[in-house]
Design goal:
The complex is a heterodimer of chains A (236) and B (307). With 236 residues, chain A is of the alpha/beta class. In chain A, 35% of the residues lie in helices and 24% in strands. Chain A folds into two domains: 2-81 and 158-235, P-loop containing nucleotide triphosphate hydrolases (Rossmann fold, 3-Layer(aba) Sandwich); 91-156, no CATH class. Chain A contains eight helices and ten strands. A six-stranded mixed β-sheet of chain A has the order 6-7-8-3-9-10, with helices on both faces. Chain A has a four-stranded antiparallel β-sheet with strand order 2-1-4-5, with helices on one face. Chain B has nine helices and four strands. Chain B has helices at residues 3-16, 18-49, 80-92, 105-115, 144-151, 163-206, 208-216, 221-265, 275-304, and strands at 58-62, 97-103, 133-138, 157-162. Classes of the chains: A alpha/beta (236), B alpha+beta (307). The interface between A and B is medium-sized, with 22 and 16 residues. The complex binds adenosine-5'-triphosphate (ATP) and magnesium ion.
């Protein structure tokens, strides 16, 4: 579904490399945690997938498209295949939960009755069907993030990217959020989640791709957050 | 994007930047007002100029039934013999007389109607009162006196007029007005362009979260830009409408009303522009506003709104 082939990324001439020779393939329906210290390149990886930036070298393939060859007018179509969730939610503060989710479909010019059907359905998916009329500031952080997930998923994209979606949340709420992502993943959506959260990674036991200084240093199915170090310590 | 949703987005944008939108409206209004003035002044020049101005320097008006008080017209209207005599006299003055045309009473009346289409004077002037004439082009326009002295008082001639003297000063004045108005309009249009692009930058800032979301969910560049363009279009078209309103008031009350009456009262016979001329100019003003809005906002969007 997503493939990086020897990808190197440099934001500007003279900057250090944000990604170096990254080779990774993420199949349809996978759930992947991307872990690594701050500045290791997790967000950069995400940005290349949605073509917010273009890779300096190498190829990025998403849903069968070579992004380095994708003409600018096809970028919107690519992004419609990808839902994205951020640490800071990015909701529209003047709009209700329902309106925030409906906004995506309105922007894409969907029919009224499609919107009336999809929005409640998606709010139910994230367990917010009873809070549709609330404004973002009347919600907890966890609930706001669930709105953001609903918004990312309402157009049913096959890929969901989440960049530290639990970064602003307490452990219990974080677990709830990742449980929702897991539920979404079970319906066939490919989920890539960047995170710092050790306990989340250790609890959910998914594939772990670890970055350090822009390089992939580990790619492990069912891994833990600090697998290499922990195993190293255990072996001694 | 559905029209209802677009309207909502545009409404939000206008509400958030009311002050800027009002300034765009006003600047557009003022710049198009000056542009309109320039165009109307040109229409006034055209109206006065008539079709013969560039070719004809001297008009020799012939007697009508109504001009018996003039000594040379004592015999009533000009006769066929007098007309022929005058023509041969004109031929005798070649090469100073380069060319001349006869304008019949009917032709003169038609031209009069055209020139005074906006003037109430028209209704009171009978066809017979409009004199037939010879229109004369000189090889050297400064030698007007030669022709004047030759024909003034000749049988069948009511009067001889130096056409240029009548209109030249007015043309100079009107051309200056036109030029000044267009220059001011140019300066104001630059203001409008800068203001529109600043407004779009500010609107883009206040709508940055919306545009980010639009971009992330795969809205096309056109969809993202459309609310901005529609907002700018609305502001400039309202500005254009206001400027047309101002020009209408100026023409209707100022020129067609006040000035015409003033000139008519003094026996002046000058064809003035009227509101019909404004309706010819107005589409250009509105079209200009639309073009300004689209081009400027498009350029500003390329700079300030990433897609
Ligand atoms: N827009 C940008 N322009 C220039 N350099 C950038 C930009 N974004 C990130 N970088 C640099 O690229 C490197 C990788 O950054 P990135 O944001 O991908 O890290 P991250 O793993 O997401 O970190 P964090 O956990 O703090 O979010 C860093 O050195 C960062 O300074
Ligand atoms: Mg990051």
């Amino acid at each position: 579904m997503i493939a990086f082939e020897n990808v190197t990324m440099r934001y500007a001439k003279g900057d250090p490399l944000a990604l170096q020779e990254v080779d990774v393939e993420i199949g349809r329906g996978e759930f992947v945690f991307v872990v690594g210290a701050s500045g290791s390149g997790k967000s950069t990886l995400m940005r290349l997938i949605i073509l917010e930036h273009e890779a300096t070298e190498g190829r990025v393939l998403v849903a069968g498209h070579d992004l380095s060859r994708l003409p600018a007018r096809r970028i919107p179509a690519l992004r419609r295949q990808i839902g994205i969730v951020f640490q800071d939610f990015r909701l529209l503060s003047g709009k209700t939960v329902y309106q925030n989710v409906a906004y995506v479909l309105q922007v894409l010019g969907k029919r009224r009755h499609t919107i009336k059907q999809l929005v409640p359905e998606t709010l139910e998916l994230v367990g917010l069907q009873d809070k549709a009329k609330r404004l973002p500031h009347e919600l907890s952080g966890g609930e706001q993030q669930r709105v953001a997930i609903a918004r990312a998923m309402v157009n049913k994209p096959p890929i969901l990217l989440a960049d530290e979606p639990t970064g602003n949340l307490d452990p219990t709420t974080s677990t709830e959020i990742v449980a929702i992502l897991e539920r979404i993943n079970r319906t066939g959506t490919t989920v890539v989640m960047a995170t710092h959260d050790t306990s989340i990674v250790n609890t959910f036991r998914k594939r772990v791709v670890q970055l350090r200084d822009g390089r992939i240093v580990r790619d492990q199915a069912g891994g833990e957050y600090e697998a290499i170090e922990v195993e190293g310590v255990a072996a001694r | 994007m559905k029209p209802g949703f677009l309207a909502g987005e545009v409404g939000n944008g206008l509400r958030r930047n009311t002050a800027m939108v009002i300034s765009v409206v006003l600047v557009t209004m003022v710049s198009l007002f000056f542009l309109g003035m320039g165009l109307l002044a040109q229409r006034q020049v055209d109206t006065l100029q008539g079709y013969w101005y560039d070719k004809v320097q001297v008009s020799i008006f012939l007697c009508t039934e109504d001009t018996a008080e003039v000594a040379s017209c004592a015999g009533g209207g000009v006769t066929e013999a007098q007309r022929e005599q005058l023509a041969s006299d004109l031929d005798g003055l070649r090469p100073l007389v380069q060319e001349y045309w006869y304008e019949s009473n009917e032709e003169a009346y038609q031209r009069f109607r055209e020139q005074f289409r906006n003037s109430p004077v028209l209704d009171n002037v009978p066809r017979e009162a409009i004199p037939e004439s010879y229109r004369v082009q000189l090889s050297d326009p400064t030698k007007y006196e030669v022709v004047a002295s030759a024909f003034q008082g000749a049988p069948g001639v009511e009067s001889v007029e130096d056409q240029r003297e009548v209109v030249d000063k007015l043309f100079t004045f009107l051309n200056a007005v036109s030029l000044a108005a267009v220059a001011l309009a140019g300066a104001m249009v630059i203001c409008a362009v800068l203001l529109i692009s600043t407004t779009i930058r500010l609107t883009a800032w206040s709508r940055r979260r919306e545009t980010t979301i639009m971009r992330m969910v795969g809205a096309s560049a056109f969809t993202i830009h459309l609310p901005f363009i529609v907002e700018t279009l609305l502001a400039t078209v309202v500005g254009a409408a206001l400027s047309v309103g101002l020009l209408w008031a100026m023409v209707h009350y100022g020129i067609a009303g006040f000035l015409t009456e003033l000139l008519a009262g003094q026996g002046g016979m000058i064809g003035l522009i009227g509101t019909s001329d404004l309706w010819l100019v107005a589409p250009f003003l509105v079209g200009g506003a639309v073009l300004l809005a689209i081009v400027t906002s498009w350029l500003a969007l390329i700079r300030h709104v990433r897609v």
